[in-house]
Amino acid sequence: AYKHMLDGKKKSSAIKERICLLNEIGFVWVVEHSGKWFNMFEELKKYKETHGNCAVPVKCPSHKHLALWVQKQRRQYREMKKGRSTQMTAERSDLLNGLGFVWKVYEDNWHEMLDDLRKYKERHGDCLVPQVYAPNPPLGRWVQTQRIAYKSKLDGKRSSLKKSAFFY
User: Fold this and answer.
1) Other Cβ atoms closer than 10 A to 157
2) Measured between alpha carbons, how far is 125 from 135 in angstroms, rounded to an integer?
3) Full residue range of the structural domain in which residue 117 is found
C-alpha cells in the first residue's frame, strides 16, 4: 500500500498520515545491506585470485553461495540497465567491472569457443571439427550448434563465423 501511494497509484489520507508518523520518529525506509554485499565482493576477489576468473560454477558445493550471489548481481545489473529499481548501483558495477566480471556469460562462452575454433583451424587447416571431438568435446558440440543456427538463419553471431572462414 505504501509503495503504491509513493508511486502515485493509490491515494489515501490514512496512508499519508501513517507515513508522516513513521517519518517523525526517524523510520528508515530503505535499509542498505552494503556490508553483506562488500563481504561477498571480497569473497569473489579471493575466488578470482585462486581461479583466475569470476565465473563461479553453481555446481561446485563449496562455492554455491558465492555462485548464487554472482547470478544475483547479473540479474540486478540487467534490471538497473532497464531503469528498474534494484540494489545494483553504478559504484557496485564499477567494482565488479574492475575484477573483470562477466555480465553476459553466454556471450563470453561463445567467444571462448570461437577462439578454440580458431586454434583448431590453425592446427588442422579447416573448421571441420567432428561432432565428437575427444580433445575438446564442447567444441564439437558448439560447432554443430553453430551450423544448425546458421541453417535456421539465426542472426547475431553469424558475421563472426564468416570472418573466421567457418566452412561446412
Assistant:
1) 15
2) 17
3) 105-163
How many whole angstroms separate alpha carbon 106 and alpha carbon 112? Answer: 10
- The answer to whether the predicted template modeling score (pTM) of the entire model surpasses 0.90 is no
Count CB atoms within 10 A of the CB of residue 44: 21
Gap between the Cα atoms of 31 and 17, Å rounded: 22
What are the cell numbers at 42? Answer: 571480497
For residue range 13-37, what is the model confidence (pLDDT) as tens digits?
778 888 888 889 987 776 666 789 9
Q: At what angle do helices 34-51 and 64-81 cross, to 10 degrees?
A: 120
Q: 40 and 79 share a domain?
A: yes
Tell me: do 27 and 77 sit in the same domain. Answer: no
